[in-house]
């Protein structure tokens, strides 16, 4: 069937009271961004639901993008027909024949906002049901838990018919939860933390530290491409690359081995906080999971957090690695995350880092350095890239093979 529009139902927005209008407006903007490849599509946000008029845009392709937009609870592809019984019956039959399989149960569910329409809901339910029984075999009605619900909505302008209820991503529209920065590495955890932040409506800028010549351009592009996957859930994400080599070289030269990692992470957090302030963010997110590595013990977190009073939010803090990997696979970041391009978190890694560093010691060692100068020079070298859904930065294997010929 050729669907004419998509009817979108809101999720948690129904609980937002006076802010509902703003939330719906933000959702409409996010939908517009993810469907920018289809300029013919019209988006009409209304109080109770959103109508997306396809205007011949392919539903299958629109569906792939729409299912990743946070703030959508469910949606249905629908067909708009004239307000005649013959058109309703003909379209209902075509939809049922396309989706019905032997052994399924169904029911007809009519809603009527146009009370001047010739038939009321019960009459239309019965007439359409009888028509389907007379033109199809093996039909069985089930009123409580049917496999298929044929939905008929009679409105002032037309009748809308659907028989699919597709589940959206849920959560809150990105942007309704405020702005923040995300400390994105090239690993498994921080992309999952990014996804969870976006799901709660937080509009995040990615902050990624890179250290040429110790890290390669491929490592940087890997982080950008991870951002491209996550942009499916946001429409667009700003990627902020922060040069970190000078800071790491200086720490390596002047800080005792056991505190290399602690002081390095303190610098990262200070830089992330200054970028957050400049971009008017309210919090810092990262991918830390309690006890997973030396820098993620509670003692280490306390010693690192000492450099800021800004809220540092860790969405995967209490998840184990298996849970994080499962979610990474579901959102499509896992295969890219495990590609072996070293990032700056792994270079200069000490063999025996302190797992219970002292805040006073960390401050003492850090004060040996020109902290302000190092941070100022790193901030002067940042590069900001706007990244859209599925933007590619790594050459695929075929392209790499061709370049070697």
Structure commentary:
- The protein is an alpha/beta fold and 405 residues long.
- The protein has 2 domains: 5-169, VC0802-like; 179-404, 3-Layer(aba) Sandwich (Rossmann fold), CATH 3.40.50.620.
- It is 39% helix and 19% strand.
- The protein contains 14 helices and 14 strands.
- The protein has helices spanning 20-34, 59-66, 85-99, 121-135, 189-199, 217-230, 245-254, 260-278, 298-305, 321-331, 334-337, 359-366, 371-380, 397-404; strands spanning 5-10, 42-45, 49-53, 72-81, 106-112, 148-154, 159-162, 166-170, 179-183, 203-210, 237-243, 284-285, 312-313, 383-387.
- Strands 1, 2, 3, 4, 5, 6, 7 and 8 form an 8-stranded mixed β-sheet that branches.
- β12, α9 and β13 form a beta-alpha-beta unit.
- α3 (85-99) packs across α4, α8 crosses α9 and α8 packs across α13.
- The protein is elongated, with a radius of gyration of 27 Å.
């Amino acid at each position: 069937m050729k669907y004419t529009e998509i009817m979108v139902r809101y999720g948690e927005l129904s609980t937002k009271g006076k802010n509902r209008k703003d939330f719906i407006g933000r959702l409409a903007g996010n939908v517009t961004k993810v469907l920018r490849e289809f300029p013919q599509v019209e988006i009409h946000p209304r109080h109770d639901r959103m109508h997306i008029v396809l205007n011949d845009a392919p539903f299958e392709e629109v569906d792939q993008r729409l299912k990743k937009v946070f703030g959508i609870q469910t949606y249905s592809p629908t067909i708009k027909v004239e307000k005649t019984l013959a058109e309703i019956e003909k379209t209902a039959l075509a939809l049922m024949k396309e989706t019905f399989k032997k052994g399924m149960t169904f029911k007809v569910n009519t809603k009527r906002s146009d009370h001047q329409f010739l038939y009321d809901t019960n009459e239309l339910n019965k007439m359409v049901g009888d028509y389907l029984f007379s033109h199809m075999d093996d039909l069985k009605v089930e009123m409580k838990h049917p496999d298929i619900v044929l939905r008929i909505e009679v409105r002032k302008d037309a009748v809308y018919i659907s028989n699919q209820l597709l589940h959206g991503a849920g959560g809150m529209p990105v942007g309704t939860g405020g702005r923040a920065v995300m400390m994105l590495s090239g690993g498994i955890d921080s992309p999952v933390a990014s996804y969870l932040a976006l799901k709660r409506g937080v509009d995040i800028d990615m902050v990624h530290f890179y250290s040429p010549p110790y890290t390669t351009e491929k490592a940087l592009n890997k982080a950008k491409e991870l951002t491209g996957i996550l942009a499916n859930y946001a429409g667009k994400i700003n990627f902020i690359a922060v040069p970190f080599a000078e800071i790491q070289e200086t720490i390596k030269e002047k800080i005792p081995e056991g505190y290399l990692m602690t002081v390095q992470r303190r610098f990262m957090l200070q830089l992330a906080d200054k970028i957050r302030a400049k971009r008017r963010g309210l919090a810092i997110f990262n991918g830390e999971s309690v006890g997973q590595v030396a820098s993620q013990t509670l003692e280490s977190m306390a010693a690192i957090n000492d450099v800021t009073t800004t809220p540092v939010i860790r969405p995967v803090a209490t998840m184990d690695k298996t849970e994080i990997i499962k979610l990474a696979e579901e959102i499509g970041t896992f295969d890219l995350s495990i590609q072996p391009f070293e990032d700056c978190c792994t270079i200069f890694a000490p063999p025996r880092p302190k797992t219970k560093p002292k805040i006073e010691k960390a401050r003492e060692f850090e004060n040996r350095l020109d902290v302000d100068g190092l941070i100022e020079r790193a901030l002067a070298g940042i590069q900001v890239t706007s990244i859209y859904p599925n933007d590619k930065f790594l050459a695929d294997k075929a392209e790499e093979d061709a370049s070697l010929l």
